[in-house]
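Late entry, written up from scratch paper. The run itself happened at the end of the previous shift, but nothing got recorded in the book at the time, so transcribing now.
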Amino acid sequence: MSKKVFILFAVAMMAANLFAQEVVSPEQFSQQQSVVLERHGNTYFYGRDAMTQRQMLDWYAQHNCQAAYLQFSKGQKMATAGWACLGVAAGCHVGLWTCYGMFVFGDNYDGIKLLQSAYGLAVGAGAFTAACIPLLIVGHRKMHNSVDIYNSHCDLAKVQPYWSLQASNNGLGLALNF
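Output as recorded:
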């Protein structure tokens, strides 16, 4: 009989921490609830800490949020590709207008070859401009949405160990879940 009472007492003592509550002042409660990751423009804020886009990948890695890290990384790569396409398109435009200017104002140049070059550069400029727009929009959208992923999934996923009662063929047991 004393073994059963002792086991019951031990289980009750181990389960007592499940019912314990931390007393938090209203100021601490509002601070805990209001600290979220936010974005204003291309600056990210966690509480009062401001971070640039370059710092965000390290921040996600430090906070062990792989979903937000991958989303931000994909978006950053797409945005970088979009800016590269925009640069190539600008170079094609400069070449296009240079060929056109040489055709109109130059007298010692072969006009047909200049026009053919200008047409080729116009096609290249149009293609790279058309490619850069969706890359920039989708890339920046992915980077911005990583904030929502962090706030909805990773910030709430704090692991807290707890005790539970487990039944098996051998009887009742106490399990520590973490």
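The first helix runs from residue 2 to 19.
(Scratch paper discarded after transcription.)
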